[in-house]
Write a structure and sequence with these properties.
Elements lengths: L1 H13 L12 E2 L4 H9 L3 H10 L2 H13 L10 E2 L3 H13 L22 H24 L9 H27 L3 H52 L1 H12 L4 H18 L9 H15 L2 E9 L8 H16 L2 E9 L3 E8 L15 H12 L3 E6 L6 E8 L1 H4 L2
Parallel strand pairs: 1-2, 3-4
Antiparallel strand pairs: 4-5, 5-7, 6-7
Helix pairs in contact: 2-3, 3-4, 5-6, 5-7, 6-7, 6-8, 7-8, 9-10, 10-11, 11-12, 12-13
Length: about 400
Amino acid sequence: MGGMTTAVRAAAAIAPPPRPSLVRARECLVTGAAAGLARHLDVPAWLVRTVLVLLGPVGALFYVWLWAFVPWESGVAAPSRRVPVAWILTSAAFLLSLTYVPLYGDPYAWTLWGYGGMSSARAMVVLVVTVFMAAGAGLWAALVDRADPGRGVRHAFLVRLAVFALLALLLYGELTRLASGGGTVQLVRTSLPLVGAAVVLSSTLILRFRELSGERVRRIKEEQRAEMAAHLHDSVLQTLALIQNRAGASSEAARLARAQERELRSWLYDGDAPADSDLPTDLRDYAGGLELDYPVRIDVVSAGESTERASGEVAAAAREAMLNAARHAGGEISVYIEGSATSVDVYVRDRGGGFDPDAVPADRLGVRESIVGRLRRIGGSATIRPGAGGSGTEVHLRLTQPGGRHG
């Protein structure tokens, strides 16, 4: 049995690692399909792109299939594309339209439209391809580039403006030819720029439909969440609160019940949007983690509004003060945050035995550097004094003008 176990372990040790999931990369050239497939197969991305090009129509269909059915990799950031697809299509449409340069010597053909040197069928094909690329550029800008963090609404507006200008020139040229005759074929040609403009305008309707559908889904979720919250509030949440009251604030059962209550309330009432990483939110999350690791109960109360972020030095110093209180005092700890547009104050109070900051050995840098020194370096102040009535410890952190001083 021992030999078999050893063999199994050896086989597991030499087994190749599992392949990464087939997902599209959010940082990509166009769609992320080729990069995602290359990462899944553990080959260079350029090799995958080369093979897809060599496969011709089959490779193109496979690429479209990957684009349509392979999901994005996990994350909340919008996909970012390095290739300006909309501008490439717009430029190609403009260049292709130049093949309409009239060679038949019409002195009034200053609009550059006509097909004097090409057959009517070839001119129709060129016009269809030009309109198709122009409409594709407008749709791509509105539906894809609009949400791209590297481009945005202004980029989409400029692309669509260029597309409409091109379609307007095409329409003007075809109307000029229609006025001089041409029959049914010329009438069809004249309608093509109008069809392209309608396709580009349809992107606005698609965006509005997306917004309405998203709002409807959010409303349905909120109604379901409200019904569930009402039911859970009458059952599970009350049970968790009863466990905390019966078990004692610092017992393990009470700490677990409090953590589960906080997590459940966050899921019920915070909605789908992630909480902003501000100072109160960060300290509440940190308090929940401390309650799981130490026999403490931490109440975080916030008043006023502050621009201080979770990545700032005040948040780091407050977390260190909360950790010290949980580690050395235990029991009940209160954190009070008072913020304004020009300052922020954080009070961390415990009910422990207290301590003298001057009696801390010089080699213990937790309070001296992580709290007092950190606030001093950014122009703030940190005061450590006995709590109310001489029991416990109160740490007061203060920073003025946090919007211009914190990190």
